[in-house]
Predict the structure of Reverse transcriptase zinc-binding domain-containing protein.
Amino acid sequence: MGKGDSVCKCCGQDMETLEHTFFFCPQAVKTWKIAPIYWEGITECQNNFSNWWHEMRGASNRAEGEKHFSLTVNILWQIWRARNEWVFNSMRVDLQRSIRKALEKWMEVDRQTEDKKRPEQEGMNRSLDQWLLPQEGCIRMNTSVAASKVQ
Ligand SMILES: [Zn+2]
């Protein structure tokens, strides 16, 4: 077994890689299913998190892309948080519920942004970015991910 490799503590079915945690773990799969997000042409990058992230960032220039991007980051964050709750506190987070909540909040923010016609989305992304980065730093194997994100 390689350094830093361990079995996913959420499902016990596979190695806990970034890809597994965020895309392939049954928890994650369920979570993405309820999220109204589909990154066309990017799903096939899911076997390499840093590629996927890169593609997704690139795609956020598409129409509505910024919005989808911030929601996607939010979902990643929720998955990560749920994982930590389980690993460190043995608490099961109802991800489906928290995603639904996040969606409601997201749509609210979206409406407000539309109302004000101000590009607040950008600032939100940045703070979500910063939020996510130190969290990810906790996983040893993702140094390349973090590096590819910093611009
Ligand atoms: Zn798993």
User: Anything to note?
Assistant: The chain has one domain: 18-149.
